[in-house]
Each structure stands twice: as structure tokens, then as C-alpha cells.
Write a structure and sequence with these properties.
alpha+beta; Lipocalin; 10-stranded antiparallel barrel; disordered N terminus
């Protein structure tokens, strides 16, 4: 009986993408319904709502999907960190476009999936708010919400809302993403140390091409 259940589960997982695809295809070819009456009377198409500020900001951030090399500047200076150090940032759209995964790591170390020192951030739309949750290597999860983006839409700023987990070593408090162009963006992160002492990390990121990513790994 267990083996039958296992096979059934695999079958469901295998066909679920097809179900989504078929459903989307059916929606795309579906004809608009007609009102009752003469043949000349047709139903007007429903106007698509304009995207909200949160949706615009999320779309802008999703355009940054890819692998980036970032030069780090920290203020005030911190032990073990030098201004000019280089790290890598990965941004990946997932969950059928509903989430953006942001990950920071050291390119000088092997890209081992069993490593545990990659700070991870998830960005997603929560109704009319663009939300950021940072899974910090300090053992906590600060949540932030984006304020209205800059007039040109290229700067998205996140303000602290609340914190889950321990706060013994401090927590991430603020984040700003600024798009310069498709191959260049800047990230500014503020970490709040114990005693409410802020540390600012400025990362100037350049997009890596496929050949550069292979060499880095």
C-alpha cells in the first residue's frame, strides 16, 4: 500500500506543472462571453487594473535576477572585514514569479550546498505591500516593508517592521536597492548591533556573465 501511495504522489507532482500550463493556455484562448440580446451587443472587456507601487517595485527588483560581484564598504570598520572586499550576490525569481530569493556568499570558497554561511533574504508581495524577510546568520528573521519607490522607480527602500528569533548579536534593520542599469546595481544594508549601534554595508554590484560565473566557481 505504501508503494502505491508513493507512486501516486510522484504522479501528482509530475502532472501538476502540466495542469498549470493547460489552465493558463485555456485562459489565454477563452473567448469573452456575450450578453443576452442582439448580436451587436457585446460585453466590453474589463480594464486591467494599473499595477500598485508595491507591484512596480517588485517587478523592478525581479529584473535584477542573476549573479553579481559586489565590492564591499563598511562604516564604521568591523573586525575581519576590509573595505574593498569582494563578495557575490545571487538573485533568483522562484515560486512561479511570486518570490525573489537573495543570497550573499564568499566566492573564494567552494560553492558547497551543505554550507550554512549564506545569509538568505526572501522578497514577496503581501497584498499591497512588498515584504522582505532576512534569514540572518545571527539566528533571527527581521521583517521589513518597502516604502514608495523613487520617482524613477529605480530605488526601493525597506523599513524595519518586526523581528523573530534571538537578538543577542543584533539584527538587520534597513535595506535599499538602487538600480543603475541592467548590469549595475547598489545595495545598502544597515545592521543594528547590540546597544542600537548601526553598521552600514555598501555593496557596489556588477552583473557577472556566464563565463565569469563558471570561473568564479
Amino acid at each position: 500500500m505504501k508503494s502505491h501511495r508513493f507512486l501516486l504522489t510522484i504522479a501528482v507532482l509530475a502532472i501538476s506543472p502540466l495542469v498549470f500550463a493547460q489552465s493558463d493556455a485555456q485562459k489565454s484562448v477563452a473567448q469573452p462571453e456575450h450578453k443576452h440580446g442582439t448580436s451587436s451587443e457585446t460585453q466590453k472587456p474589463i480594464a486591467k487594473a494599473a499595477p500598485s507601487e508595491a507591484e512596480k517595485s517588485f517587478l523592478q527588483l525581479k529584473s535584477l535576477a542573476g549573479t553579481w560581484q559586489a565590492t564591499l564598504t563598511v562604516d564604521p570598520p568591523q573586525p575581519g572585514i576590509k573595505n574593498g572586499d569582494v563578495g557575490q550576490i545571487s538573485l533568483r525569481v522562484t515560486s512561479r514569479g511570486n518570490a525573489l530569493v537573495h543570497e550573499m556568499y564568499d566566492p573564494s570558497k567552494p560553492n558547497d550546498p551543505a554550507r550554512y554561511d549564506h545569509p538568505l533574504t526572501m522578497l514577496y508581495l503581501d497584498n499591497d505591500r512588498l515584504t522582505l524577510v532576512h534569514y540572518c546568520d545571527a539566528g533571527n528573521r527581521p521583517r521589513m516593508v518597502a516604502r514608495s519607490s523613487s520617482p524613477d522607480g529605480k530605488k526601493v527602500e525597506f523599513d524595519f517592521v518586526d523581528l523573530s528569533g534571538a537578538n543577542q548579536y543584533g539584527h538587520m534593520y534597513h535595506a535599499v536597492f538602487t538600480t543603475i542599469d541592467e548590469n549595475h546595481h547598489i545595495e545598502d544594508w544597515t545592521y543594528m548591533m547590540p546597544g542600537d549601534k548601526p553598521v552600514h554595508a555598501h555593496m557596489d554590484a556588477q552583473r557577472l556573465q556566464s563565463a565569469q560565473i563558471s570561473q568564479a566557481r
